Amino acid sequence: MMYKLGIIVASDKGARGERADESGVLISDILEKHCFQTKEYAIVADDFELLADEMIRMCDVSKVDLLLTTGGTGFSPRDVTPEATLDVCERLCPGIPEAMRAASLAITPRAMLTRAAAGIRGRTLIVNLPGSPKAVRECLDVILPTIPHGLEILRGDAGECAR
Question: Which residue intervals of the chain are DSSP H helices?
């Protein structure tokens, strides 16, 4: 089964063309080896309305199965990706960011500073990832084994979590 992937890079400098995106490209490279095809990719300024609008467009119009964001999950006043995510989601998935934080805490105590969120809008799973390529790879290592099963359930292709 192939899943449609959307990627949003939250970055003021990236949106202005002042910084090359590494994390969004890395997400695409990793997931395209695991039954995902990148259908949407956008670099958006750290702005609540712009982020929320792009999330809604990818979910409702492009109908991606999985929407991964990178960046904007820290303590900076401009970091509003989790707020935009929570605003557009209909149901929350707290276990996903909890698992990422737990695994990341084994690497660095600074992992407790991430405010990443995850949730569902329609038939799309939205997950916030950190901004650094290293942290993106570490978090994907944690969640990637389970995400396809979650998407199967969300799409109605599977119904049992019990083994």
Answer: 12-15, 23-31, 48-56, 81-88, 95-105, 133-143, 147-155
Split the chain (163 residues) into runs of 10 and give each run's mean pLDDT.
96 97 98 97 98 98 98 97 98 98 97 97 98 98 97 84 56
Non-local (6+) Cβ contacts of 22 within 8 A are 133
Helix (H, G, I), strand (E, B) or coil at 32: coil
Q: What is the Cα–Cα distance from 10 to 54, expressed in whole angstroms?
A: 11
CA distance 78 to 86: 16
Long-range contacts of 155-161 (CB under 8 A, 24+ apart): 155/65, 155/123, 157/1
For tokens 């809604």, what's the residue? 56
SS3 41: strand
Distance CA 59, CA 6 (A): 8
Rounded to two decimals, the pTM is 0.96
Q: Are 103 and 138 in contact (CB under 8 A)?
A: yes
Residue 9: both structure tokens together: 């890079």
Q: Are 103 and 142 in contact (CB under 8 A)?
A: yes
E strand or H helix that includes residue 29: helix 23-31
Q: Is 49 exposed, middle or buried (0-12, 13-18, 19+ CB in 10 A)?
A: exposed
